[in-house]
Specification:
By secondary structure, the chain is α+β, with helices and mostly antiparallel strands. Helix content is 44%, strand content 20%. The protein has a five-stranded antiparallel β-sheet with strand order 1-14-3-10-11, with no helix packed on it. A three-stranded antiparallel β-sheet has the order 2-13-12, with no helix packed on it. The chain has a three-stranded antiparallel β-sheet with strand order 4-8-7. Helix 1 runs antiparallel to helix 10, helix 2 packs antiparallel against helix 5 and helix 8 crosses helix 9. The relative contact order is 0.15.
Length: 456
């Protein structure tokens, strides 16, 4: 019929989801481009963060070199370490020097050990009740009532008496000592020093101390007498209640370990090891920056063509000039790495350490300090580039979101059209079935023919 739309062979089912997938694949090419660009920007931003970390490490090392206290460090050596130990507590208060000292005696605690004991640890020690009094440094610290009956709560066995002494105070430590045959009582002071003596007496009618042969009435039970440590420096003796002498020489602690038969020599020298270590750390930090710049700004590097990093590396090199002037740095022309002329450093530290100290704490600091603050700060070129990349990444993510939304809308519209087309196709199949049922397979149906033969 004239004016009608004829769809040839529009029958049978089809997979419209496959059509939609192909459509999405074609239209998402722009998204893939955006994602690739975002990945490149993220890589650049990550590389800049790594470079910023290297700069801050360089800054930390440089700040350590700017501190003139590293030139004031001292080392100490002792000719007999088994007799004397010396530590530097304040290197700024100690001068390089040497002196001799002797240890006359070391500090000791007061110690008492009963000369007799009991064979049965669970039996009462005394035969009659009494009171034990213990003094420390002239003051009474414990008064212990005891009895001869183990069935009462009053201490009676040697362990109970030791426990009662310990519970009453913390200046004298009581311990039960077994000599292989008998249990004996050991008392020791908490502190060394001649003033920290122990006194043990009876104040009642008991016989505890007599049974144990312990206390002021039994001289042999006083097995160690509290004493001060004494050292002698060129004929002058100094005492201390402990083995530590903290004020004999300012900035130094002398510890007496054992008495000496001959003087011990103590030698204090300048210690420049920290200066050398910090110089080496500065070189390593700089070389890491050189390697990074070469890798990331070279061909195929994440920051290829970025001259900011090259400029920073070059500026750092120029600002190290005070150390080049001293001749302690050398440059490898192939790698750009710095190295230290250790023999030159040793020579300067031996003959003229002030020149290196001035070069580091004044000249180098004047050159580097403010610049390092600038290139590691919030307004540095690195931070500015990172912010620029953040802005670009945010823009791209917005574009990806908008493009995804547009594609989704187009896909949804196409899906509705294809669903409608499927409905039309279903209707065509239904019409075809009716025609076939009524007329057989007429020639108007594609792939069939109508039999027009008639009988005579």
């Amino acid at each position: 019929m004239a004016g009608e739309l004829y769809l040839s062979n529009l029958v049978g089912g089809f997979d419209y989801q496959q059509i939609l997938n192909q459509m999405y694949s074609i239209k998402s090419v722009q998204i893939q481009y955006y994602q690739q660009r975002e990945s490149e920007l993220q890589n650049k931003k990550s590389a800049l963060s790594s470079f910023d970390s290297l700069l801050k490490k360089f800054q930390d090392v440089a700040n350590d070199l700017f501190d003139d206290s590293i030139f004031e460090q001292k080392s100490v050596s002792v000719s007999n370490e088994s007799a004397v130990n010396v530590t530097i507590t304040d290197p700024t208060a100690v001068d390089a020097s040497s002196f001799d000292l002797s240890v006359i005696q070391t500090a000791k605690k007061d110690v008492w050990l009963s000369q007799a004991g009991v064979s049965d640890k669970t039996a009462a020690v005394a035969t009659t009740a009494g009171t034990l009094q213990i003094s420390y440094g002239g003051d009474v610290v414990a008064t212990i009532d005891y009895d001869a009956d183990t069935s009462t709560n009053t201490p009676s066995t040697i362990q109970e008496i030791a426990n009662a002494i310990n519970a009453a105070q913390d200046k004298v430590k009581a311990t039960v000592f077994f000599d292989g045959t008998n249990y004996r009582l050991l008392l020791s002071g908490a502190d060394t020093g001649a003033d920290n003596t122990i006194s043990i007496t009876e104040t009642g009618g008991g016989d505890l101390l007599d049974v144990l042969q312990l206390g002021d009435a039994y001289v042999d039970s006083h097995v160690q007498t509290a004493q001060d440590a004494i050292i002698e420096i060129y004929g002058t003796q100094v005492s201390s209640s402990t083995n530590d002498f903290t004020s004999v020489i300012p900035g130094m602690t002398i510890t007496a370990e054992a008495p000496t038969s001959s003087p011990v020599t103590v030698t204090i020298d300048h210690d420049y090891s920290q200066v050398k270590d910090n110089l080496q750390k500065l070189v390593e930090a700089y070389n890491s920056i050189v390697d990074f710049v070469k890798k990331y700004t070279g061909k195929n590097g994440a920051l290829s063509g970025d001259f900011t990093l090259q400029d920073i590396r070059s500026t750092l090199f120029d600002k190290l000039d005070p150390l080049f002037q001293l001749g302690i740095f050398e440059v490898d022309k192939d790698t750009g790495h710095l190295s230290i002329d250790t023999s030159k450093v040793d020579e300067i530290l031996s003959s003229d350490p002030e020149s290196l100290e001035d070069a580091l704490t004044k000249d180098l600091k004047d050159n580097l300090y403010d610049y390092l603050i600038y290139i590691t700060g919030v307004d540095s070129p690195i931070s500015t580039e990172q912010q620029s990349y953040d802005n670009q990444i945010n823009y791209i993510e917005n574009q990806i979101e908008l493009t995804n939304k547009r594609i989704s809308e187009e896909i949804e519209s196409m899906k509705k059209q294809l669903v409608q087309l499927q409905l039309y196709m279903a209707q065509m199949q239904e019409v075809q079935a009716r025609i076939t049922q009524t007329f057989g397979t007429p020639s108007i149906i594609p792939g069939t023919s109508i039999n027009t033969t008639t009988g005579a």
